[in-house]
Design goal:
By secondary structure, this protein is α/β, with parallel strands linked by helices. It is built from five helices and seven strands.
């Protein structure tokens, strides 16, 4: 899991999200080392459990990182051409929905996809299972495509999911997303709040 670090003369004890920069986010160990710099972000590693993370300076910097370039580049950080891979993205979505539908009947369900990108997963859920679909996507570029080209009207950029009340969703998906989250534990707490009891 990679997350984003404040650069400067010294590391603060906590980042702007309130996470410790002197203890591992997972195991609590203080045995931390600088791991490497990636695209201007400093990555830390816990020597005990091996977790890699970056301390998140602010949400705007994260949103700026997931711009049009992220979805259209030849580096290892992002996609060469996300839209060109639409058929594979949709095939993967149908496969995940098929597996998920074995555990919970998703037909006509209220479904949330966190990290919904261009909306292909949500569009497949809407088409194949008549789901009432919602998404969370921090990229304005991807969100604009999902809303404008696919007509997905319920796409939020709020990772805290304040738009939805307790127990609003029957199913919540994070497909290839958790490693992008600045606060995985907090996100899962928000998921727990918006997911119905017995939801998936």
């Amino acid at each position: 899991s990679i997350v984003i670090l404040v650069r400067g003369s010294g590391m603060p004890d906590r980042d702007l999200q309130g996470h410790s920069t002197t203890a591992c986010y997972v195991c609590g160990s203080g045995d931390i080392r600088p791991y490497r710099h990636v695209h201007g972000f400093s990555v830390l590693q816990c020597r005990i459990c091996g977790l890699l993370w970056v301390v998140c300076p602010d949400e705007e910097r994260i949103r700026a990182y997931y711009d049009e370039h992220y979805f259209n580049n030849d580096s290892k950080m992002g996609y060469r051409n996300y839209l060109e891979d639409e058929d594979n993205q949709r095939l993967n979505a149908r496969h995940i929905l098929s597996i998920s539908n074995r555990f919970a009947h998703l037909a006509n369900a209220k479904v949330l996809d966190i990290g919904s990108a261009f909306g292909f997963f949500l569009d497949e859920a809407r088409r194949s299972l008549a789901c009432d679909v919602y998404g969370v996507e921090v990229s304005a570029y991807a969100r604009a495509y999902a809303m404008g080209s696919l007509g997905l009207t319920h796409i939020s950029q709020d990772v805290q999911m304040r738009d939805w009340g307790p127990g609003f969703f029957d199913a919540v998906f994070l497909v290839g997303t958790i490693e992008h989250l600045a606060s995985p534990r907090e996100t899962l707490c928000h998921v727990s709040r918006v997911l119905k009891q017995g939801g998936v």
